[in-house]
Write a structure and sequence with these properties.
By secondary structure, the protein is mostly helical. The chain is 55% helix and 11% strand.
Length: 132
């Protein structure tokens, strides 16, 4: 099994016309590893959501759809999958960013009752406590 970096995921998922050669290479590399599978860690998913929103201007629905599509591919092993699934549900139901939802879910799985933050936007998720 091999791990995927965010830039490979972006090229594969969006088939970026500005990087069409890299998109083809990424797609071929992932397809060639269908039998052994590929690994995507939660940092890559957080970066993926950020790039989709900030650089590619995806809305929340589009970001959620991309993450759902990654989760649906049988040959992709997603690290922290239960927490990613919780994060996705919280992201779809709330107003916090996907990365914030993922941080909260990972911390909760580690036994945390809340996550302390100075980020007011993160407190859109009930799993954060704003430090003032």
């Amino acid at each position: 099994m091999v791990g995927l970096d965010t830039n490979v995921m972006i090229r594969w998922l969006t088939l970026d016309p500005a990087a069409s050669e890299q998109s083809q290479i990424a797609s071929a590399a992932i397809l060639a590893r269908t039998a052994e599978g590929v690994f995507v860690n939660s940092v890559v998913l957080a970066e993926l959501a950020w790039v989709l929103e900030r650089s590619l201007r995806f809305d929340r629905v589009g970001i959620a759809a991309v993450i759902e599509s990654v989760l649906a591919v049988p040959s992709i092993t997603v690290a922290d999958r239960p927490q990613v699934e919780v994060s996705l549900k919280n992201f779809q139901a709330g107003k916090a960013g996907f990365a914030d939802c993922l941080i909260a879910a990972l911390n909760a799985s580690g036994g945390c009752t809340t996550t302390l933050t100075f980020d007011k936007s993160a407190t859109k998720s009930p799993h954060f406590t704003l430090l003032t």
